[in-house]
């Protein structure tokens, strides 16, 4: 049952939760988020210039959000590329999508225990 729930949740995300964690060991949302973050589950790579430009055009045409993300982690302007900006933005959106599922995950885990 727990595995089925997390498989359904994974369908809404860009990664499979069970590839990063033993689902049976999870007891609360914060623990799940922390483990997924530590294991790089939210890390989304956008490779190739064309793919990166298309992703940025659709999700951050002004580059404001992606440039802010780069600045927050100390990336210098000379080290920025379209692939890097697109990957940072896609990773952040992945975290946000997962966070939007927080109440659903918390409710399930409370009922499961």
Question: What does it look like?
Answer:
The chain is mostly helical. It has one domain (2-112). The protein is 62% helix and 0% strand. The protein contains six helices and no strands. Helix 4 crosses helix 5. The longest helix has 19 residues, at 82-100. The radius of gyration is 16 Å and the shape is elongated. The relative contact order is 0.17.
Ends distance: 12 Å
Quick one: overall form?
A: elongated
Q: How much strand content do the residues show?
A: under 5%
- Overall pLDDT: 95
Number of domains: 1
Low-confidence stretches: none
Task: Name the structural class.
Answer: mainly alpha
* Cα-atom radius of gyration: 16 Å
How many strands in all? 0
The helix-strand sequence is HHHHHH
Number of helices: 6
Short structural summary:
The protein is mostly helical and 113 residues long. Helix content is 62%, strand content 0%.
Topology:
Layout: H1 2-11, H2 29-38, H3 49-59, H4 64-72, H5 82-100, H6 102-112
Helix pairs in contact: 3-5, 4-5
Characteristics of this structure?
single chain, 113 residues, mainly alpha
């Amino acid at each position: 049952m727990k595995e089925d729930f997390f498989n359904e949740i994974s369908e809404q995300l860009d990664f499979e939760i069970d590839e990063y964690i033993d689902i049976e060991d999870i007891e609360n949302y914060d623990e799940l988020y922390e483990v997924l973050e530590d294991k790089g589950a939210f890390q989304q790579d956008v490779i190739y210039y064309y793919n990166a430009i298309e992703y940025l055009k659709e999700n951050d045409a002004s580059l404001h959000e992606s440039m802010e993300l780069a600045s927050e982690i100390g990336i210098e302007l000379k080290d920025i590329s379209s692939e890097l900006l697109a990957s940072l933005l896609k990773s952040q959106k992945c975290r946000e999508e997962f966070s939007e599922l927080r109440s659903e995950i918390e409710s399930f885990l409370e009922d499961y225990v």
